[in-house]
Write a structure and sequence with these properties.
Blueprint (H helix, E strand, L loop, with lengths): L13 H17 L7 H12 L8 E16 L9 E7 L3 E9 L5 E9 L13 E2 L2 E7 L2 E8 L2 H7 L37 E8 L5 E8 L12 E10 L3 E11 L13 E13 L2 E14 L4 E16 L2 E10 L3 E4 L2 E4 L4 E11 L4 E12 L20 E12 L1
Antiparallel strand pairs: 1-2, 1-3, 1-20, 3-4, 4-5, 4-6, 6-7, 7-8, 8-9, 9-10, 10-11, 11-12, 12-13, 13-14, 14-15, 14-16, 15-18, 16-17, 18-19, 19-20
């Protein structure tokens, strides 16, 4: 009769587990249990080397690639008005996540996400890079995380776009983007799209009210006169059929990538919106105000914008429409208010056709129209120097596969 051998594996590293299992194989071999059938032996060995489920990590990702035809027009310099075609990357990524449940009901969480460019080979500037990664603890209080992150305000913009959030167009071509301005503030730029290191994140517990707060420390950008920081907040409230959302961000002495600006700054952004349904039609409307303050040189710039998004299910897919409009900016410098003709509007229509659970085909039309002094083109591909007043038309056909 074959003796039974048992061994327990406490939570350890994979290397410790493998070492223990090798010792176990040696033990059962010394006790002469290898007379069993080969098929049964294979099952035993497979079970021995199986990693406990508590150590399993979830891996997922996506590749989104499309043919993007861009036409630039409206420049007084004719050589700027050109058309070009390229294969563009959307949001291609791979992520690894893991969570460990504790006896007290809390859990330890880990998330690693790498962004890469599927259609761009050999370009060091487009290599695989960290996008959002963190380690943290979750419980009834919500989640606290440390790492790098897109900020909460940014998520309010792309998550409410009717276009695929993994692509480049829609609300983000204008919303959250800095205007050309009157030229008296050399440091005016958007901080909404800064993915930040040194970030402390808080996510509220599950419920009708969702809360996210990100705080970015100054890190290496701190100097004797400046302590850069970003505070970003997002709120969403589900009222049953109607949802409200809001975002707020203040960037203090922030020049981007944790650098220190030459002038003291206090730049803010606010957005308020509502989402609702009319039959099968889902819609949202959002109003935004961005303000830049160069307190050293007493220059203040303000810009307002709005967005309207709609989604409608068709028999074979989903139709999405996005319209955005940025008003002209107002600048106050030395007591004089200057309004520049630097607004813009954008219209985007996308059709998304699911081929299966993981694969989607889509076609998109985008038109970004700048006022005579406008320079908006963020997240809009164009083979042009983007001179003031230029307009951009894009036609995209693409495929996305997620796993």
């Amino acid at each position: 009769m074959m003796k039974k051998a048992t061994i327990s594996f406490p939570t350890q590293s994979v290397f410790d587990l493998v070492g223990q299992k090798l010792l176990f194989l040696k033990e059962i071999h010394s006790k002469g249990v290898f007379f069993m059938k080969k098929s049964l032996l294979a099952v035993v060995i497979a079970g021995i080397f199986a990693v406990p489920s508590a150590m399993a990590a979830e891996v997922n990702g996506a590749i989104a690639v499309g043919i993007d035809r861009s036409k630039a027009s409206g420049s007084a310099t004719s050589s700027d008005n050109i058309s070009a075609t390229r294969i563009s990357d959307g949001y291609s990524f791979i992520s690894i996540s893991h969570s460990e449940e504790f006896d007290n009901g809390m859990s330890g969480d880990l998330y690693l996400q790498a962004h890469y460019y599927a259609s761009d080979a050999g370009n060091a500037a487009q290599s695989v890079n960290n996008r959002n990664s963190y380690v943290g603890i979750s419980g009834d209080f919500g989640s606290i995380r440390l790492g790098s992150n897109e900020n909460a305000y940014e998520r309010m913009l792309y998550s409410h776009s009717s276009q695929d959030g993994d692509w480049s167009y829609g609300t983000i071509s204008i919303m959250g983007v800095a205007p050309a301005g009157a030229g008296n503030d050399a440091g005016i730029r958007s901080h909404i799209w800064d993915r930040t290191n040194d970030t402390l994140m808080y996510y509220g517990p599950d419920g009708p009210l969702k809360i996210e707060m990100d705080y970015v420390f100054g890190g290496a950008g701190t100097s004797a006169t400046r302590t850069p920081s970003i505070l970003s907040l997002a709120l969403e409230y589900d009222m049953g059929g109607i949802g409200l959302f809001a975002g707020y961000q203040v960037a203090t002495d922030w020049a981007g990538s944790g650098n220190t600006p030459t002038a003291a700054r206090d730049d803010t952004g606010m957005i308020f919106g509502a989402e609702f349904g009319i039959g099968d039609l889902a819609m949202n409307i959002g109003m935004e105000t961005l303000e830049w303050k160069d307190t050293t040189n007493n220059v203040q710039t303000e810009r307002s914008a709005f967005m309207v998004n709609a989604k409608y299910p068709l028999a074979s897919g989903t139709l999405g429409v996005t319209y955005t409009r940025a008003d002209d900016s107002d600048q106050t410098s030395g007591g004089t208010t200057t309004t520049t003709d630097d607004g813009a509007n954008g219209l985007y229509i996308g059709y998304y056709h699911p081929m299966g659970e993981s694969t989607t085909l889509w076609a998109m039309y985008g038109k970004l129209t700048n006022d005579p002094a406008g320079t908006y083109s963020f997240a809009t591909w164009e083979a042009s120097p983007n001179t003031a007043g230029q307009d951009f038309t894009n036609y995209v056909i693409g495929i996305k596969h997620a796993f």
